[in-house]
Amino acid sequence: MAQLSGKTEITAGDSIRIKEVERHNRAPKKYAVSKKNFVCLEVEISTESDWYKSVFSEAKKIESKLNKGQANTSEERSEDIVEIDNLAGVIAEYACFAVLRYYFKDAVEKPSSDKPVNQIDIMFSGIKKTVEVRSSFVKNGIDFALFNRPNDKDKEQYFDVIGPYSNGYKPGEIIKDYYMRVLYEGKKEEFKDVIDQKKIRLYITGGVTADMIENKSISQVKHLKPKGGEVKLESDYIVVPMGESLEFPVFIENISRELLKK
């Protein structure tokens, strides 16, 4: 398995540049999580690369099949928001797939689907483990998502690693084995300006396991709305606050241990 060493930079062709970065907790003490540092993977994507053009084309195919109604309500999202939500989600999904392939080679595959949204984003075929990718925009910056809380009374944070639906709107949803978290820095409405630039930057923070989702001492239930950029359906979700989630190197090591059990 390939390893990143500290902040060593690795370039995969002309498409994706990845680098481990350590973020530091500078949130006001009253509203800060206890975690002092958080190691993420910074991913820089060239919009001039064949890889990006292929992913953009895939997003366009999916977009044509999407229902523009917002969530399980009759409210309609604008054309721009539908396009941004879809494109950002597809880029995040394929970026996570490329990163996992970098680490684990042919053990990782991407199931094909003719549905607008894959039921399984990524799979480890040999150990039959599934991965769901969740992405969001953070207008207040990556560190805000990692370290800030709305109050000092509980462990709730503004941002979480989002797991499965927890209500009856989509009954029987299977909990995936892993949930990967991707954050874009900036306002969602400005993403179209970002993709016109030569580079797109996103952060893979790491994620959580199914065991963490099922552990009620760290997971919570939240009602999330698509207009917030976090999920495609307005519903109740099981989430794990970012401060309780696995940092990127720990998340990768967790998967590595599972592969070694094979």
Descriptive key words:
nine-stranded mixed sheet, alpha+beta, 262 residues, disordered N terminus, three-stranded antiparallel sheet, 6 helices, single chain
- Could you tell me how far the N terminus lies from the C terminus, measured between alpha carbons in angstroms? 15 Å
Overall mean pLDDT score? 85
| Number of helices in the DSSP assignment | 6
Helix- and strand-based class?
A: alpha+beta
Largest sheet: 9 strands, mixed
- Tell me the overall shape: globular
Radius of gyration: 17 Å
Q: What portion of residues is helical?
A: 25-40%
Which oligomeric state applies? single chain
Show unreliable segments. Answer: 1-9, 70-74
Number of strands: 12
Query: What string, H for helix and E for strand, traces the elements in order?
Result: EEEHHEEEHEEHEHEEEH
Q: What is the strand content?
A: 25-35%
Set down the secondary structure blueprint:
Blueprint: E1 9-12, E2 16-24, E3 37-46, H1 50-63, H2 79-104, E4 108-109, E5 122-124, E6 129-138, H3 142-147, E7 160-165, E8 178-185, H4 191-195, E9 199-209, H5 210-214, E10 220-224, E11 235-241, E12 246-247, H6 248-261
